[in-house]
């Protein structure tokens, strides 16, 4: 048995025992996000049971499926860690909310946590939410049919069918680096073999529908809308580990993070938060259909087809434990060519291992 596998099994056993020992909470009607009306200042007093303010980027969506399940399915409440949501526009705004004291915890990409290690107020990653690259590669249905991309072929054969296409992608380092790695692994030269077009997110799916681009590298909700509503075909399911290294390696991408100060003064509250997340992750794997039904009202802006496709794409990225392995941490940083800060300074798994 590999060391990490053994560690995960030990943690899962400890987590199950810890959850069983927690007192039963007052349960709201099933599916409601309890704790969301709590006073945002209450999380500062250190008492277990008070609501922790969690900054959640608007773009998270189904990429953070387990977190939403933990909230809506009352897993946080049953662990004694009710949550108050603080919606923020993007991860950068979430990090700012942490540092300004407006949030106690934030959902951030690992590179943001790693960069903070050298800053005056470093952050620490506590548990992984999304265990894969959240970007996926799709092409228009007519292109997939004409070029024989409808069936599962080896990576090199699929990529050879992309020559001559215009591929759209959103702004951002991870999208650009992900596509660069895919093209490099396929020996396709941007500007020669394929044309790249960076677009605002709201223009991605319309550009695919109009033929302005023939392929997309995108994440929720654009990639599931492209497939579910525009009929696009997934060429690389990177959020399930399909693709070249380092794009498709298991990684800790979105994580729960906090400041060192909050970590030092609220250790038990954070431990319970992680136990709630662990419980939700296990439930997603044990009963994905029930988890999807629970989440459906949360994503009412998506069509049934787009939601179903998002579930298929992103439930595959739900980890079995919040534990952050060193390999997964390093893979996330390598995927965007970020400097690999010392693992022990950026990540703390100790709360997960407490009885």
Structure description:
The structure is a single chain. The chain has helices at residues 3-21, 65-72, 75-78, 91-99, 110-116, 141-146, 155-160, 173-185, 201-210, 222-228, 260-265, 267-286, 288-295, 304-314, 326-335, 343-346, and strands at 52-57, 83-88, 105-109, 123-130, 136-139, 166-170, 195-199, 215-218, 233-236, 254-259. By secondary structure, the chain is of the alpha/beta class. The chain folds into two domains: 3-132 and 250-353, Periplasmic binding protein-like II (D-Maltodextrin-Binding Protein, domain 2), CATH 3.40.190.10; 136-240, Osmoprotection protein (prox), domain 2 (D-Maltodextrin-Binding Protein, domain 2), CATH 3.40.190. The protein has a five-stranded mixed sheet with strand order 2-1-3-10-4, sandwiched between helices. Helix 10 crosses helix 14 and helix 12 (267-286) packs across helix 13. The two termini are 23 Å apart.
Outline:
With 355 residues, this protein is α/β, with parallel strands linked by helices. It contains 16 helices and 10 strands.
Output the structural class. alpha/beta
Which strand-content bin applies to the residues?
Answer: 5-15%
Tally of structural domains: 2
Give the uncertain stretches in residue-range form: 1-46
Order of helices and strands: HEHHEHEHEEHHEHEHEHEEHHHHHH
Give the strand line-up of the largest sheet. 2-1-3-10-4
Mean pLDDT: 86
The number of strands is 10
The number of helical elements comes to 16
Q: Architecture of the largest domain in CATH?
A: 3-Layer(aba) Sandwich
In the CATH hierarchy, what is the superfamily of the largest domain? Periplasmic binding protein-like II
Per the CATH scheme, the topology name of the largest domain is D-Maltodextrin-Binding Protein, domain 2
Q: What would CATH call the class of the largest domain?
A: Alpha Beta
